Fold these 4 entries.
Entry 1:
Amino acid sequence: MMKMRELEKFEISVLNLCKDDKLREKLRNKMLKSKEPTDPFQLKKIENKIEKANKKIS
């Protein structure tokens, strides 16, 4: 099994914005699988996805 890395503080803060536990876990696992920290462009895309999901919940 592949060794997973620790998430960076900025990645954790973006994930904490998500209200949907299922989506948060899915995104967290996706971030953990990558060897490098998430770049700013990808982080912004993830943040937009979280905002859309939060609007649906509200």
Note: The first helix runs from residue 9 to 15.
Entry 2:
Amino acid sequence: MTALSFVRTLRTRPWLSRAIALALGLGTLLGTLTDLRLSQSVLVAWNSAAVFYLIALARLMMTANTADMRRRAETQDVGKWTILGLTGAAIAVCVVAIASELIAAHDETGLSKGLDLALVGTTIVTTWVFVHTTFALHYAHAYYIAIRRAEPPPLKFPDADCEPDYLDFAYFAFIVGTAAQTADVSVASKAMRRLNLGHAVFAFVYNTTILALCINIAASLLG
């Protein structure tokens, strides 16, 4: 992907662009102007940007109507796989930072150790919500892109007479992320099955990693 197409991809996603700018700017400031460890700077910057982005998306999801969703699907069709790739890369960096922070926290005591573990716990939650919210948006846009092209809907909801909103797709995404199944929503296209498979595998790997990290946190607290 060229730099120009990457810029074009971010330009169609203003809130994501702002979140990336916030993460980079805050991370740089913390790394140069404070005594925080690199892992601490990365995690604080990530959490700040992720919470900022999730609040913006929550507002969007609660207020958007079907016409808004169709319009966003049209503008955000380009670069969707790049966004998922960037999401995966960001999560990988966070997991490495979490592991580094847990190693550093093992030798600390008292308030310092508690704050480090609280930072790790917060990161686990924000990252989990961020991942599945990103997939929810992707599912929604894939659905309405298919509708725009007069193709059969790639997802079939039980109440077929109504048009699904963002919360319906969030429901689907978080069910996949927590239970690795699709509940009462049927997958009806090859492309969606592949995306769903990738989501399920991604969720399994992340959940397994988080379980291991939580065991490590418990051991640190007991130690």
Note: The longest helix spans residues 110-148.
Entry 3:
Amino acid sequence: MKKPVLLFGLVSAAVAIAGMAATTPLILAGDHAKSDLLGYSAMVLSALLVYFGIRWYRDREDGPVGFGRAFAVGLLITLVSALVQVAAFQLLYFKLVPGFGDAFVACMIDRAENAGEPPAKVEEAARTAATLKRLYDAPLTNAALTFAAPLPIGVVASALSAAFLRRRAGQVPRA
């Protein structure tokens, strides 16, 4: 189980990190719509690697692979990917792009203004953005929040993939 977890976890992380690298200049330039589209697309593609990892594991097992085992493989792939993403984002946030937090605050405020929100909602968005920046400025909460971002998608991808790819005893493997 170790090989597919590491292989697909690292490839999943690479896809997510490529998404981070591609969206960062867009966020800094204020192109929020493109950064959102690219960022969410990278998250979905990254989660898709969970399916391929579980399938790779299942196809190499001689016996039955139940939902629980397949789900565990998917979760472990997700955890490896999320941990690598945390390390990459810490490097990006604290070393490579030190103004990223301020750019993200501006992004949140711009979104509220461009959506035509009333001044009270824009002010609320500014307070929320400032709170998030304070949380992201602390390495431990930055790591926790970054880790939590891909986790729900990975859990759903693991559950759906495990349900779809499980093989019961006596079931003939697909060619």
Note: The radius of gyration is 19 Å.
Entry 4:
Amino acid sequence: TCPEARWTTTSGSAKRSRSCVHAVTGVPDEDSDECVDHSEEPKVCKSEVPTSAQALDAADLLRRFFATHDDGEDGLEIAAAAQKAIIRLKKTQQTSIMDFFAAK
């Protein structure tokens, strides 16, 4: 856990914040050493794209989080909308041209 994580730059807390953000989201902060610096282009971080299953797990986690709070109705709606969008993307995922020619 990262209880002291804040977006501040005083006394090393920014470094803790970046590591906590990376631990929670799996995406490194742009200022971290894991990013690749291209001279004229914005920084591009090396990170893997989450799978549909991971995204659905995250939406379920949000739904469970908001369900435990009295004022979580808006959050439940957002989590449901995210889950619906993930399922829609999963269904419309582009297939390879090689799949068309594969033996059936």
Note: The mean pLDDT is 71.
